[in-house]
Amino acid sequence: ISSAVSLENGLARTPPMGWLAWERFRCNTDCKNDPDNCISCSYILEINLFTFEAQESQFVQKLSKLGQKERNQYGELVPDRTRFPRGMKALSDYVSDSILKFGIYEDFGNYTCAGYPGVIGNLQQDAETFASWDVDYVKLDGCYAHPSEMDRGYPEFGFYLNRTGRGMICSCSWPVYQIYAGMAPNFTSIIQSCNMWRNFDDIQDSWVSVESIIDYYGNNQDVIVPNAGPGHWNDPDMLIIGNFGLSYEQSKTQMAIWAILAAPLLMSVDLRTIRPEYKAILQNKKIISVDQDPLGIQGRRIYKHKGIEIWSRPITPLYQNYFSYAIAFVNRRTDGTPSDVAVTLKELGLSSPTGYRVEDLYEDVDYGVLSPQTKIKVKVNPSGVVILRADVQVDFDRRVSYYTTQRTPYNPLNQVFRIRNNGF
Ligand SMILES: *[C@@H]1O[C@H](CO)[C@@H](O)[C@H](O)[C@H]1NC(C)=O
Ligand SMILES: *[C@@H]1O[C@H](CO)[C@@H](O)[C@H](O)[C@H]1NC(C)=O
Ligand SMILES: *[C@@H]1O[C@H](CO)[C@@H](O)[C@H](O)[C@H]1NC(C)=O
């Protein structure tokens, strides 16, 4: 339950947003043969400029990884001077001079997944090193560790992070490794040590991978959803929008579902070359605003039948006991033609008698104020999405009846969204 005791470092009150190298660039450290793509200081500086431009201060986190190659004679992590000639603190200073914050990857284990030093045996020292580098965000992976030791080890590292006095977001892989080992993660404890955590597989550059994640979060929502809230989030992994594997429709679906899931929005894409239509998806302010809703309630899959899914997330504003909602209609079918979905607001659980102002978050269409009895009809493209926002109205019955009896909703998309009024 989100009101349970949780990590109170004051951070990640809404899901963190930013850019990570991993999904797109992997462990490329070959600066000799691939200078444009290897993970190095100059590469991060270059991407940094684009992150800044791409997200117009919406995205604030940023992760570098593969910087700490080894330990010195005192056991301290030391940067790879070939790729980070001025070290991690200088990089952190540079990144933090912009609107971004600085994140780093490590591993609760003997090694990182790529074989670099892990934190086991150096928990306190590494926490202090990160604080001295002005790190804002620590991702702690779980390779080369015993999953049964994580219940003790992750909180211990969290304790040392806290003791540094520097607020650092703690991103954990603790539950996913335990689930892989057949254990049931103790989320009560995880919430107390982590600002976010991975539940499921690493995302790969394909729609199959995105679908498997969507299914995992839908099928396990009764266990997963209650753990999310301000300061502690489920992390379905990076946004792969703008890479090679997703179509335009599928990219829109990933962005919409991640917002419904109150997911961290962590891009992993080459911002130097991303096409404008994909950049526009990542920059969709209305969808980002759903993701960043201050209530921090994770949404759910409320309908699934014959390849059609409806996902719903309660958001602000509230009026009396009624929430506003973001609603995503997803078409998982592949039969070539858009599918119609017709449903009343009431059937979606939107029952405030004062009505809801409804807008489409991709098509920039405002449908005015609709009553709960209004039947909405959307056309959803194969592997695509229609995402709506329905803001509950303050008590203003005259306006409801005005819109629902006298106004034909403006529809530039000719029959993409038809509204039929019942009940008035
Ligand atoms: C990590 O190293 C220690 C000390 O060598 C060893 O006891 C432990 O089993 C190792 N853990 C894993 C997961 O390999
Ligand atoms: C450390 O933990 C205490 C107790 O939960 C909290 O009040 C404080 O803000 C934390 N400090 C940092 C730097 O995370
Ligand atoms: C889960 O963690 C909480 C908080 O640390 C602890 O009180 C509880 O006993 C743990 N539950 C189990 C089943 O281990």
UniProtKB/TrEMBL annotation:
Domain of life where this protein originates? Eukaryota
Asked if the record carries the keyword Disulfide bond, the reply is yes
Q: Which SUPFAM superfamilies match?
A: (Trans)glycosidases, Glycosyl hydrolase domain
Q: Which GO terms describe its cellular component?
A: cytoplasm
| GO biological processes | glycoside catabolic process; oligosaccharide metabolic process
Record family assignment: Belongs to the glycosyl hydrolase 27 family.
Name under which the protein is recorded? Alpha-galactosidase
